[in-house]
Amino acid sequence: SFSADEVIRKRLLIDGDGAGDDRRINLLVKSFIKWCNSGSQEEGYLQYQRMLSTLSQCEFSMGKTLLVYDMNLREMENYEKIYKDIGKDEKIIAAAHEKISECKKQILQAKRIRKNRQEYDALAKVIQHHPDRHETLK
User: Fold this and answer.
1) What family, per the record (predicted)?
2) Higher model confidence: residue 1 or residue 34?
């Protein structure tokens, strides 16, 4: 009653990241049953060694999965830190833009003041060429 896609989907869900854990567990169960039903001591020892080997593979796979999980947690923390740093940098950049805008306004004002002073100086030079009011009235 199951379609091939459903079987594959269930196997992938059981198998996790595709490391073959499902197959290893099935092998372990089969080895255990063979070991229980083994007639000779030699056959029992062989099945025992197979079970140890399969268990070792499962432990290795589990250890690898835990290391990947820990690495992913550390990466997540690292990305969160980077995200916070970017937020701080954006605030610093916004503040710098604001300061630049304020400085531009101050430069325009300083240019206006300088222009006025130059005009005052030019008028003062022209006025100095004429006699003062007291002399003119005489």
Assistant:
1) Belongs to the THOC7 family.
2) 34
Q: What is the pTM of this model?
A: 0.48
CB-neighbour burial class of residue 79 (10 A; exposed 0-12, middle 13-18, buried 19+)? exposed
**Cα dihedral 49/52/56/57 (nearest 10):** 70
pLDDT tens figures, 9-27: 666 666 555 556 677 777 7
With a cut of 60, say whether residue 81 has pLDDT above it: yes
Contact 24, 43 (CB under 8 A): no
Asked if 54 and 22 count as a contact pair (C-beta separation under 8 A), the reply is: no
* Token digits of residue 44: 């029992």
User: Taking Cα atoms as reference points, which of 55, 49, 17, 19 lies closest to residue 34?
Assistant: 49
Instruction: Enumerate residues 6+ apart whose C-beta is below 8 A from 54.
Output: 24, 27, 28, 31
| Per-residue pLDDT, 54 | 83
Q: How far apart are CA 36 and CA 48, in angstroms?
A: 10
